[in-house]
Amino acid sequence: MNAPVSTSDLAMLSMTEAADAFAAGEVTATALTQACLARIDAFDAGVNSVIRLDRDAALETAGAADAARAAGKPLGALAGVPMMHKDMYYRAGKVSTCGSKIRRDFVAPKTATVLQRLDAAGAIDMGALNMAEFAQNPTGHNAHFGDCHNPWDLAYCTGGSSSGSGAGVAARFFYAALGSDTGGSIRLPATICGVTGLKATQTRVPRTGVMPLSFSADNVGPLVRTARDAARFLALTAGHCPGDATSAREPVPDYEAALSGDIRGLRVAVCETYFLEGADAPVAAAFETALLALAARGAVITRVKAASMRAINAYTALVSRVEGAAIHANWMREQPQDYAIHLSSRLYGGYAIPAHLYVEALSRRGPLLRQFVAETLTGFDVVATPTLKTRVPTLAETDIDADPENWGRFMAVSANTRPFNFLGLPTISLPCGFDERGLPIGLQLAARPFAEATVLRAADAFQQETDWHRRAPAL
């Protein structure tokens, strides 16, 4: 960025643009924060993305960042950038509701590792965001704090469970937000709200200080405007944490440095089995156009089939059901009435799954990962699918508490995202078009374990070729 930024345009910047503008002295952290707060004040009453707004603390942190820059002190790579996060990331001394009645007054005893790393990078934390109760639905409904609404059209769902994160980033209320992804809960609100969402390789980002849903499938990651934003965010938050024994010790590269826009020769596998079956016509058309954009950048597109998808999909649901039921066992015994109806019924179902089936699912994870890689990634760099097979549904169409007949539509939302959680593969969703109603459509790219750099390079090249990620809802 070479010219001073207009105050009226500040909220429209991407995360990296805002950070770089602050570092260059083109804008103050206070101005960035005020621009975000002004949009929240003007529009969040309809969107309902915010659970807790720490207005004074955010402005105080912004003022401190401005003073540090004026004094010539070292600045972090996200210095001066306002963010908000899904209300399941603990910050010591703050209430963390997890979108639930049960934890409405829970005060966190510690700060999540990922928040500590964002603090160290200079990010400004403005508060906590609405979410599906205990992160356990793919649509974003919440019986306790009210449903979050899609900023493109308030009658439609946001995707879940990181509903406030997706809606708020799309509405330009802040520049980045943490979500979590156990079956698609970053990628679904990303595609449905028209933003970019990254689920890294399982264990890549530590989960210390984060309310769990599934021991073996939870992932920490960002919802942002661009692949470049995701690259910087991941580089600053990934890496082993002693408090999370499951966190990977793999070196963390400079993802952003590899974003050249050059994907000549990149081999893209289009997995037609399962992922494209039954796709709505506007989704299929936007997906094919997205493939043309990748090809225009030099990617080589090949159609493949995967015979392993039926087993992968079945085991994915089984594992999350059992592990979720185990995590909630005490509360389900003591206060089951405090759960939304759909969630308590889901948890009860987890208790009915025999232990041998759960163990079978875990034992099949490695072999199925090897089979999927052999079928779709041998000789290829990334796998491309639509993120969501169907057009974005309305809140009413996916409200299973109001009408259990909506269950099929409710579960169909996460059909294309769930398998990548069971497999643990790095996966990104990015905007690739709109349907005839003006609702977003998403492209999903996945790669081998710890190949985030490849996924991000492909996604960034796509966004250099297209402008879908630049489009914002009118509100």
From TrEMBL:
Any Pfam family the entry gives: Amidase
SUPFAM superfamilies attached to this UniProt entry: Amidase signature (AS) enzymes
Native species: Paeniroseomonas aquatica
Coiled coil: none
All residue ranges annotated as the Amidase domain in the record: 32-456
Name of the protein this chain belongs to: Amidase
InterPro entries linked to this entry: Amidase, Amidase_CS, Amidase_dom, AS_sf
Domain of life: Bacteria
